[in-house]
Amino acid sequence: MTTQTNAYPTRAYGATAPDSGVGPIEITRRGLRDDDVLIDISHCGICHSDLHSARNDWGRTTYPIVPGHEIVGTVAAVGEAVTRHKVGDRVAIGCMVDSCMECKHCDQDLEQYCLQGGMTGTYNGTDRRDGTPTYGGYSERIVCREEFVLKVPDGLPMAEAAPLLCAGITTYSPLRTWKVGPGSKVAVAGLGGLGHMGVKLAAAMGAEVTVLSRTEDKRADAEKLGAHAFLNTSDKDAMKAKAGYFDLVLNTIPVRHDITPYLQLLRIDGVQVLVGVIDMLPEIHSMLLLGRKVLTGSGIGGLAETQEMLDFCAEHGILPEIETIRIEDVNHAYERMEASDVKYRFVIDMESLRQS
Fold this sequence. Notes:
single chain; alpha/beta; Quinone Oxidoreductase, Chain A, domain 1; Rossmann fold; 2 domains; 6-stranded parallel sheet; 11 helices
């Protein structure tokens, strides 16, 4: 029989309506079940999906909502049956906090694609056991089932580790799935929060990395991040010269756009993976796919792959480029993020919430 401790009143920042902005609220974290871990959150990254969810841009937000699925912190308490973590451990939570753990996909370490109702989102989800809403990392603490709590390697600073839980794994997973390694020719379309991680990870895997951008203003940054080349997609002659060249195009562009030019860059059996856009795409001509080119999408990785990614980043010294902010500056960060005025990821220092 599962026992449960007393619930935890918790300070947080959340939205109460599409136009409310994100501000101080109090939520209640459930008491510890036998298999639960209580985490004091030290940092939480900001993702574009936080903004869209807070404003109900996708039409499926339940209010109040506490965003944040790039969470790192320290274990403060554990349930009686917990064996994976102990008090004081450096830990992390990504985009999911539960799944059925029994279906075919969960058995294959693909919990993110759970066949029994899908994964349970870290926020704006519903707890599988008691039906209560899940609240994210813009808060001082969180309670989570132990299997979904990951270990932060000693080599990763906590603030920089936070964006790896979404931006890191979202780009790492397709690179691993499509077996990127020495000799691979990888193009990264878009140089934002996702794209800059794609460049760093692909280069660390041994690939030849090219950044694709419509303008020249990203060329210097691409080189600093470890790209081997830069291709201006507005230059028709340069694009024609690279037709059929790449093994993989990692497309991180977050808005509706024409994917046709990127398909033309692929060799036979080359792959374009969409990880950024969440929208209808313009039509493409089927002739482009008759060259045995693959168009696919990818979400986050499963638990084992996410832990592998964290360990890989620690081993290779791969850190996201971040700007740390205080919790009260979240709404301004949203505005700057919409204007692409960040290089390349915002991270909230949660000590600012405890001080407020």
